[in-house]
Amino acid sequence: MINKIAVMTTVLILACIGLLLAVAFHFYGKTLTQATALTALTQQKEQAEFITQSQALSVGIFNQIAGATLNEQKSSQTASQQRQTVIKTVLATAPCAVVPVPAAANDSLLNHYNAVRQSSSNTNSGKPSGTVSAVVSSR
């Protein structure tokens, strides 16, 4: 009888140890799977952050370019309005039907046109960007 109790106790203890080993290996496998998934997700997150930072940098650069372009357009428009005012004042004092365009207005417009044409390096008209020859005006 003692042998039967000892054998049953030993079998019961071995079964408990076996069950504990099975549970331990099961959760160890789950831990490895989760660690692998966590590593992959971390890499994806870092890639997404890099892409986001690159896009933010690109947008910042484009905004700077757009701001510089708008500033240049505003200054060009202001200069043009000032020239228009000068030309209108000169033309208001002279009868246009009888007198040709005054030399000062003609030269001012010609110089402005040549300056704008030379400074616009990104124009692609398919033709060389030469200057316009001076038109004979009354002096």
Describe the structure.
By secondary structure, this protein is mainly alpha-helical. The protein has 2 helices and no strands. The chain has helices spanning 2-93, 103-119. It starts with a helix and ends in a 20-residue tail after the last helix.
- Biggest β-sheet: count, sense, barrel? none
User: In percent terms, what proportion of residues is strand?
Assistant: under 5%
Shape label: rod-shaped
User: What Rg is obtained from the alpha carbons, in whole angstroms?
Assistant: 43 Å
Distance between the termini: 139 Å
Average per-residue pLDDT, rounded, comes to: 82
**Helical content (DSSP H or I, runs of 4+):** over 70%
Summarize the structure.
With 139 residues, the protein is mainly alpha-helical. The chain is 78% helix and 0% strand. It has helices at residues 2-93, 103-119.
Give short descriptive properties of this protein.
single chain, mainly alpha, 78% helix
Helix-strand layout with pairing:
Blueprint: H1 2-93, H2 103-119
Organism: Rouxiella sp. WC2420
Protein name: DUF2570 domain-containing protein
Region (Disordered): 118-139
